[in-house]
Design brief:
It is a single chain. The protein has about 290 residues and is α+β, with helices and mostly antiparallel strands. It has two domains: about 5-160, no CATH class; about 220-294, no CATH class. About 60% of the residues lie in helices and about 10% in strands. It is built from nine helices and four strands, in the order ααααααααββββα. It has helices at about 5-10, 20-45, 50-75, 100-115, 120-140, 145-160, 165-205, 210-230, 280-285, and strands at about 240, 250, 255-265, 270-275. Helix 2 runs antiparallel to helix 5 (about 120-140), helix 3 runs antiparallel to helix 4 and helix 5 (about 120-140) runs antiparallel to helix 6. The longest helix is centred in the middle third of the chain and has 40 residues, at about 165-205. It starts with a helix and ends in an 8-residue tail after the last helix.
């Protein structure tokens, strides 16, 4: 333990003459403030679906923070101030290691996850709460300032490391749902369309399609299936903000140009148009307004 850490602890730790009102207030800050902030944001997320994933990821980061703290403490069992005979401890606690502060790590992990979302107003409130929680741990004599600082840095770093995991997991789940939906659609098509068409052709062979008709229908179905596959990995193709904001353009076997937009929050893909041959898709797309989007 450095002399600076010790000096800061003795400066910030509540002394014997501290007003009991402050002791009671900081006890609540230490143990109840984070739960209050999490509960309030969870209630907001229930009513506002676009923030639901942000809160769930932030809670996941808190769980990850708790696991990482225990792993660090098992490897580096650095003592709390009480074990060193420093200051006054205003809250009873065990003899568990103090590096890093679990409360500070969880609080800053939650705040940093909201900032990573980004959910700026909520993250600002969460960072303010995390700073108060970190200070309360020193004020009540439970941690050294260096232990709280280590927890804050660790908590801020965890969301930036772990953030891609739920995103890739979500993409995998959307891909699986897309494949399952396609299988169900093919199965329904086989039973309702193919079987009925076969029986009808068997009864009247003159209703059979010409090769050109079959080829045209096949191309139409293939393009429709390609458009449906955009729900699996939507952020593909070339982004053409010069035509209109958010437009992406891709092609199907160099036969058709497909223009679409992606609503990441709603997990939806909007097909703006399918253009064949030499059609001027840029002029056609420039004519769209936001209200005219399919």
């Amino acid at each position: 333990m450095s002399q600076l850490d010790q000096w800061l602890f003795l400066l910030l730790n509540a002394g014997p003459g501290t007003d009991p009102v402050f002791i009671t207030a900081f006890r609540w800050v230490s143990e109840g403030l984070l739960a209050t902030v999490v509960l309030a944001l969870a209630l907001i997320a229930i009513t506002q679906q676009r923030h639901r994933r942000d809160v769930l990821v932030a809670l996941g980061c808190m769980l990850l923070a708790a696991i990482v703290v225990q792993l660090i403490r098992a490897r580096f069992a650095l003592p709390r101030p009480a074990a060193l005979g420093l200051g006054i401890q205003w809250v009873a606690h065990g003899a568990s290691p103090g590096m890093p502060s679990a409360h500070a790590t969880a609080a800053f992990a939650f705040a940093a996850a909201l900032a990573r979302a980004p959910w700026r107003r909520a993250s600002a409130a969460a960072f303010a709460a995390a700073a108060l929680i970190g200070y309360s741990r020193v004020f009540l004599g439970l941690h050294l300032p260096g232990q709280v600082l280590a927890g804050a840095l660790l908590g801020c770093a965890l969301p930036w490391v772990a953030w891609p995991v739920p995103r890739h997991a979500g993409q995998g789940w959307r891909a699986l749902r897309s494949l399952m939906a396609r299988d169900r659609a093919i199965e329904r098509w086989l039973y309702t369309e193919v079987a009925a068409a076969y029986d009808e052709l068997k009864a009247d062979p003159s209703k059979a399609l010409t090769p050109d008709q079959v080829r045209a229908d096949h191309d139409t179905d293939a393009i429709a299936e390609f458009c449906f596959s955009l729900t699996t990995f939507p952020e593909r193709g070339t982004r053409r903000d010069d035509i209109r904001p958010g437009v992406r353009v891709t092609n199907y076997r160099k036969r058709a140009v497909i223009a679409f937009t992606v609503d990441v929050g709603a997990e939806q893909v909007f097909i703006l148009g399918v253009f064949y041959g030499g059609q001027d898709f840029e002029a056609a797309l420039s004519g769209f307004t936001e209200d005219e989007r399919p």
